[in-house]
Amino acid sequence: MTQTTKSLGKLGKFEILAELGRGSYGVVYRARDPVLEREVALKVIHPRLLVQAEFVQRFFLEARVAARLDHPNIVPIHDVVESGGSLFIVMKLLEGKSLQRFIESKAKLEPAQAVPLLAQVGSAVDYAHSKGVLHRDLKPANVMVREDGHATLTDFGLAKALSESYASSGEKQAGTMPYMAPEEFDAGFGEVGPATDLYALGIMAYEMLGGQVPFRGSSTQIMHGHCMAAVPAVGGLAPGVSEVLERALAKKPSERFGSAEEFVAALRGALATAVRQEVRQEPAAPLDVPKANGAPQVPQPTGVPKAGATKLLGTTGITLVWVPPGTYWMGAADSDRGASRDEKPRHQVELDGYWIGQTQVTNAQYQRFIDAGGYSTRSYWSDAGWTWKTSNGVTQPGCWGDSKWNGADQPVVEVSWYEAEAYAKWAGGRLPTEAEWEAAARGGPLSKGYTYAGSNDVGSVAWYEDNSGGVTHAVKGKAPNELGLYDMSGNVWEWVADWYVGWYYSSTPRKNPSGPTSGSERVLRGGSWISGPTDVCGTDRATIAPGHRSSIVGFRVAQ
After folding, report:
1. Backbone angles phi, psi at 98, to 5 degrees
2. Residues 439 and 328: beta-carbon distance below 8 Å
3. Based on the domain organization, do 76 and 113 belong to the same domain?
């Protein structure tokens, strides 16, 4: 027997099922549409606002504009209805909980959690601004977060209509004071515009990383803080991060970041720099000098990470493994007659510490990117990638509907370099450089000098031509290498960040090499399920054009 929820009454054709929340603007209900047989959310505007005819007219105008916004991180508006003396918006019913509750449940968020959420909200804000729409009430309470980390921004258009209504009636400005920009209190700071929303996004970032908003207290104290006070430092954050937040919260709109994308990129870069500086103190053994214990190290609860330590990459489901800073060998020895010319000469590189994916990105992990609007969110893509995607009409991996390749734990395949790059940016990471990939495949400072990633026995660590059966296999199906990384040999070739030039090894920079500055093809590493033993060794290199897609090619992320 199907259990149904008892109706609490009707509003127009809609059956009210439950109250979801209320605020100064009105009440939000969970409701059922009996005609379309679906549940929706109804935002019912407070009756005191309906006495103003100008407000009602303006509200319909703004709601129509907001309803035209089509973005994966903006809640869809189905309808605006005036019925029985009530005015309400019909919206998609969102699952999950508000970002406000998410923050409160954790006190503050780790950067790996905060940045992907900010990127999604920022993408929605930039998109709305490109359509001429301001939000005017950005705050964590207006962001819904699903269990898989997908964020959706609500209430577009409503705050602007309300603020203009308040202004014309002589009442106080609409908005939520802890998130309001100086120009909303005093026009002397500048005009209200896109930078006003970006200021509120900066406040949200401050709260997510610090656990509280920067300016608190009475209304007078909060207004004074926004307009006059310096931004308080967030305890535990590196100076570079504080500088980014200070710019985001500049008093003058013209001194803030030009877009949410620019702000999030600066924040991500400052956080990454802080991590590198934090771990740089740890001495690293050279690649050819293995430590006494070749097993992956257990993550340390505090202090500098040890080689093989792990952490989660936000809500992507990806486990990252730490590779400490040090000097590592790269390339094949001159005496290795089976190696190709572009694998030589063997040389040493100095790398800063970095995190790299424990496994190749799986179909289940890639599905989250698709669900988050990865293929329709411009900010995740490079200019070349966006042009490639739109010109080819790409909306998902090439074999997404083929059961041979799309098992949840199989590595995602038939993704171009552009798609891998976009996924990595969405996830809060990047593609590893070729030098980083090889150092990790060899086992980093724990290396025992194996031919393949973790063993001299190819079959124990790799899915390749002799044992794959002509298909990819679930990650972690073979033994890991010394760092605890899986499938660095075989299963699928992996995109790395570098352009390919055959002679590059003869002139590679020693410090953090990142490949040639340009080229026509990108580098692939690791070999695949169709490769022979030579191709799945730790030094072999392959290349294809960045727009190429194949069932033998996937990727893993780094940070």
Report:
1. -70, 155
2. yes
3. no
pLDDT (tens digit per residue) in 438-495: 999 999 999 998 999 999 999 999 999 999 999 999 999 999 999 999 999 999 999 9
| Helix, strand, coil fractions of the chain, as percent rounded to 5 | 35, 15, 50
Q: Give the contacts of 32 (CB within 8 A, at least 6 positions apart).
A: 5, 7, 14, 15, 17, 38, 39, 40
Contact 278, 240 (CB under 8 A): no
187 and 326 belong to one structural domain:
no
Whole-number Å distance between alpha carbons of 146 and 443: 36
For residue 382, which amino acid is it?
A: S
For the chain, what percent of residues have pLDDT higher than 90? 55
Q: Name the pTM for this structure.
A: 0.52
383 is catalytic: no
Domain that includes residue 66, residue range: 10-92
CB 488 within 8 A of CB 431: no
- pLDDT for the residue 95: 83
- Among residues 126, 137, 155, 197, the one annotated as catalytic is 137
Structure tokens at 256: 């803030």
Q: What is the total count of domains within the chain?
A: 3
CATH number for the domain harbouring residue 238: 1.10.510.10
